[in-house]
Specification:
- The protein is mainly β and 125 residues long.
- It has one domain: Jelly Rolls.
- The strands form three sheets. Strands 2-1-10-7-12-5 form a six-stranded mixed sheet, with no helix packed on it. The protein has a four-stranded antiparallel sheet with strand order 6-11-8-9, with no helix packed on it. Strands 3-4 form a two-stranded antiparallel ribbon.
- A hairpin with a 5-residue loop joins strand 3 and strand 4.
């Protein structure tokens, strides 16, 4: 399963990278990842006019997109759009941060899953 990571490099710039989260055959119930620890689950809605200037993530977290489209821009100007089904691992809690905005003018719903400092399965950095 593809995960997009947003992180801060040693220069304080935010960057994207994509990696594969390993899934393992669990028979009739399908393919599952290894278990990871999480500290909470938050549900979020943002309006179609959402436009949040450069900021850092408040904590290390997964963001799971349910609907709507958002564009995230790194401090180096790279932009990527995310929509329903996309999963981000947001780790730029320090540095220059990122910008995010609504793209389609529609309500966006997402799920935030803070993960603290624990390991992320499949992250081979």
């Amino acid at each position: 399963m593809k995960i997009t990571r947003l992180y801060t490099n040693s220069n304080g710039d935010s960057l994207f990278e994509v990696y594969d989260l390993p899934l393992y055959d669990r028979g009739e119930i399908g393919r599952l990842s290894e278990r990871m620890s999480a500290s909470a689950v938050l549900f979020r809605e943002t309006g179609g006019d959402y436009n949040y200037d450069f900021h850092n993530a408040p904590e290390r977290q997964f963001i799971i997109m349910l609907d709507g489209v958002t564009e995230i821009e790194t401090s180096l100007g790279e932009r990527r759009q995310f929509s329903a089904g996309d999963i981000l691992l947001v780790e730029d809690t320090t540095g220059k941060g990122h910008r995010s905005r609504s793209v389609d003018g529609q309500l966006r719903r997402s799920v935030f899953v803070p993960i603290g400092d624990g390991p992320v399965v499949g992250d081979e950095r």
